[in-house]
Amino acid sequence: MTVTYTTKRTASDLGPRRLHADNINPNVKEAKYAVRGELAVKAEEYRVRLAKGDKSLPFDSVIFANIGNPQQLDQKPITFFRQVLSLLENPALLEKPEALRSSFGYNQDALDRAKKLLADIQSVGAYSHSQGAPLIRESVAKFIEERDGFSANPQDLYLCAGASSGVSTLLNVICHAPHAGVLVPIPQYPLYTATLSLLNAQCVPYYLEEERAWGTDVEAIRQSLARAKAEGTDVRAIVVINPGNPTGASLSPEDIKSVLDIAAAEKLVVIADEVYQTNVFVGEFTSFKKRLRQLQQEVPGKYDHVELASLHSVSKGMVGECGHRGGYFELVGFDPLVAAQIYKFVSIMLCPPVIGQCLVELMVNPPKKGEPSYELYEKEYNGIRDGLHKRALALYEAFKQMEGVECQEPQGAMYLFPSITMPPKAIEAAAAEGRQPDEFYCLRLLDATGVCVVPGSGFGQKENTLHFRTTFLAPGTDWVERIVKFHAEFMAKYQ
Amino acid sequence: MTVTYTTKRTASDLGPRRLHADNINPNVKEAKYAVRGELAVKAEEYRVRLAKGDKSLPFDSVIFANIGNPQQLDQKPITFFRQVLSLLENPALLEKPEALRSSFGYNQDALDRAKKLLADIQSVGAYSHSQGAPLIRESVAKFIEERDGFSANPQDLYLCAGASSGVSTLLNVICHAPHAGVLVPIPQYPLYTATLSLLNAQCVPYYLEEERAWGTDVEAIRQSLARAKAEGTDVRAIVVINPGNPTGASLSPEDIKSVLDIAAAEKLVVIADEVYQTNVFVGEFTSFKKRLRQLQQEVPGKYDHVELASLHSVSKGMVGECGHRGGYFELVGFDPLVAAQIYKFVSIMLCPPVIGQCLVELMVNPPKKGEPSYELYEKEYNGIRDGLHKRALALYEAFKQMEGVECQEPQGAMYLFPSITMPPKAIEAAAAEGRQPDEFYCLRLLDATGVCVVPGSGFGQKENTLHFRTTFLAPGTDWVERIVKFHAEFMAKYQ
After folding, report:
1. Where among A305, A335, A364 does a domain terminate?
2. The Aminotransferase class I/classII large domain covers which part of the protein (chains A, B) (predicted)?
3. Which positions in chain A touch B268 (Cβ < 8 Å)?
């Protein structure tokens, strides 16, 4: 059946429906999320056309370099993880261990792990504790202790449906009024600005230093904070993404201390987004938790009241299991009454996906040396890590060759964020279409090559600078060559 | 290391931390969610004590009758579903079909289904389309078409992490200001009031008719609506839970028409929570979508502009896979520009758990007659359905015997919601503890028997009435006898 509606609208009569674009929640309207916006939608349309045999496009594949989605591209899941998950989904498999071993190569440690998890969660089809299954939180606490050398308490851990869900929870609790503000690095992963928009709270931007490999500039933070305070904003928290998204920057212990110094002095809650903690090529990852505990020992008193929430995820690193929506956050130094409110908040959505929780357990507690599944795990893990680094360098080399493109050396995460200098004529052409110049560039790139990247405007950037973010997940070098060729033609056309 | 904080607080100095219970988001503080509140936390503590060998409690097991969590209790997952999910988690299993069949009893249709899903989603570890994988939305559309006899469009479907997440999305978009209101049945599942609190919007309660098996009273809706409008509330939507939670009531086609009449006349968006659509003992389930399409055919024009969002879930019914967090909602009659905002909103959280999406596919597209897995599926499905009905009736019979307890005949869902008449002395004892009388009753019940139910005050109830909600999921009758015995002693004590 077909139902038709009048499309004519006047100011006083906005059509027969109750909801229209002009009367829904303005905070939802205000929110922006470019990673899955117009470009991503168009790329998906191209993919479907190609899959249906459309030969009219000037490319034969779509490269989704717009989003850190490893298993959509080349990355294979870690065998041990998926073996355990298959046993959790169908525990009947555990009844024939011999057949599992001989036909499918499952080792005893996979079977043991599945049994241990099932003893705690009962079934992956049952709701768990709203903070996450107790055994799994114990494993996460042990992982944090081993990583940092400082104790962690399962009661302070909250498993969540990917770090995004954890960030949303934290910002929901922190932002109390329209003048609540949160310091957010620019460029940033747009989850932060989008969530602050939804909460009708203030994003207080602080700019990262591109010329210093996107380092964190303490002076920039201080200035932003002072400006926001002067404008009446109640700045309550600071977000740090380390390693950085979209920048790929990796913070030094000294940089982390600078942020903690400001947090301690200004009473800012620190939200440390550490989902790329294993994607580090240069130097070594230091967690905010570890640095905070060190400082608390070194300078008794000064940092005792710092509140820190740090996040991790199964989506990134060498795990790359985004589709499973698993993650956790740890609260350090929070008032127990505030933690109780966080518990209530997460309990309204009942619990995070239980199979995703189990994947968190596997990530933080992988096979150990000497265990039967260790060798293959190690091989797969290192293979993924090395492949990522190699592709990052290849892409970096390509960018170095491109006219008007500048790129910081890859340090970590899954992204490069090169700047582009566009000819004035290209900027005029963009304006004629009512678009940001970098958005215009990325659209032309997609139309010409099938390569989907995200314009810098989707993450924020200093005025009069232009960038785009690309992942280095896609296999091969063909797509990099497509970008190089497009770029040369684009520059020539608008010269 | 131990960090200590001063606990002394004055009005002007609320401690050294930035966040405390008095300055976080007041909407979070305001939200109430009794299903996982104090009673549930205490029950979990008892469970842990028993598991650790504590013999000091007057019961030897905790019965979680507070929450519809079938697989925490007796219910086994459907074999076919879990076989397919195990293959999705470890596609390497598909390489040895003979071993799968001979050692583990997988039929060819399970293998075929896994391959078909993998061809669409690539990996359960990859992000999907934010609305859900295209193939899965096609299956859901077919299911709705077969259920209702009216067409459904995959583009109007949004997979979500359980219906709770879908409800949150819808209310986020609908509620535009503090004077936005949503009609919610009382008693209700507290997700609705909690989410409205979080959004700082108005819950406009309408009372269900207990004496008419918790039927929907059109007059009550009209009165609530008129009162709210007079108070300046912009009432935008009406929630209907059918079959009812916590009431178990099942709406007749006539009742549904009454709601749609009001929605059409008053321009209210209808949110139809239909997660218990297969848990119907009395009569037959009619969806709001079907009834709306029928009315649109019968009375051209009158219902054309009605906006309906209906929700379904893998958590309930005979599937009972709550831990997987799978569900969907369908939009009918929504402005495409509003739908675009809903898409953007869900895209901020990237996508629902992909394995949960696959479970949605299995739920709506189970093995068909003639297919190898059909017979076992049918047997398991009917076994669960009959078991639920049997337990509902047994519990109902027990309540009929109890002094001061009245209960409507079970019609559907997973709950009974009996009313209790408490002696004045018991009500005084509750007041002395600063508790609602029904909360007092449920706490005493838990302390004495280990049976955890939820007080009626957690769902809302008419003034001067008291209730509790219990699921009828727990196996056996021992726990019912515990309730009967406790109740007799409670009544005697406070006589």
Report:
1. A364
2. 110-477
3. 18
A2 contact residues in B (CB cutoff 8 A):
none
pLDDT tens across B185-216, in order? 999 999 999 999 999 999 999 999 999 889 99
Cβ separation of B86 and A89 shorter than 8 Å?
yes
Per-residue pLDDT reduced to its tens digit, A138-159: 999 999 999 999 999 999 999 9
| Cross-chain residue pair B191–A296, CB shorter than 8 Å | no
CB contact under 8 Å between A125 and B321, yes or no, is yes
Assigned domain for B104 exists? no
Residue A275 shares a structural domain with residue A405: no
Tens digits of pLDDT across chain B (495 residues): 333 333 333 333 455 899 999 999 999 999 998 777 889 989 999 998 999 999 999 999 999 999 999 998 879 999 999 999 999 999 999 999 999 999 999 999 999 999 999 999 999 999 999 999 999 999 999 999 999 999 999 999 999 999 999 999 999 999 999 999 999 999 999 999 999 999 999 999 999 999 988 999 999 999 999 999 999 999 999 999 999 999 988 999 999 999 999 999 999 999 999 999 999 988 899 999 999 999 999 999 999 999 999 999 999 999 999 999 999 999 999 999 999 999 999 999 999 999 999 999 999 999 999 999 999 999 999 999 999 999 999 999 999 999 999 999 999 899 999 999 999 999 999 999 999 999 999 999 999 999 999 999 999 999 999 999 999 999 888 899 999 999 999 999 998
- Is there a single domain that holds both residue B221 and residue B274? yes
Same-domain check for residues B49 and B139: no
Residue B393 and residue B284 in one domain? no
The model carries a pTM of 0.95
Give how far A489 is from chain B: nearest CA, Å.
32
d(CA A201, CA A195): 9
Count the domains in chain A: 2
Range of the domain at A126: 120-364
A119: closest CA of chain B, how far (Å): 12
Give the minimum alpha-carbon distance from B22 to chain A in angstroms, rounded to a whole number. 9
Query: Are the Cβ atoms of A344 and B37 closer than 8 angstroms?
Result: yes
Residue B241 is assigned to a structural domain of this protein: yes
Last residue of a domain, one of A329, A364, A399: A364
CATH number of the domain residue B247 falls in? 3.40.640.10
CATH number, domain of B425, equals: 3.90.1150.10
Does one domain contain both A48 and A157?
Answer: no
Contact B18 A324 (CB under 8 A): no
Query: For residue A70, which residues of chain B lie inside 8 Å, CB to CB?
Result: 125-126
Query: At residue B211, what is the residue type?
Result: E
Q: Which residues of B touch A237 (CB under 8 A)?
A: 18
Same domain, A264 and A337: yes
CA distance A410 to chain B (A): 24
Nearest CA in chain A to B151: A1
Write the ipTM.
0.95
Q: Which of A161, A199, A347 sits opposite B161 (nearest CB)?
A: A161
Same domain (yes/no): B286, B351:
yes
Residue A95, domain member (yes or no): no
Q: Which residue of A has its CA nearest to B6?
A: A305
Residue A93 C-alpha, separation from nearest chain B C-alpha, in angstroms: 7
Q: Return the residue matching tokens 């001067």.
A: B464
Q: Both A358 and A387 in a single domain?
A: no
In B243-402, which ranges are continuous DSSP H helix?
Answer: 253-266, 288-298, 336-348, 354-364, 374-401
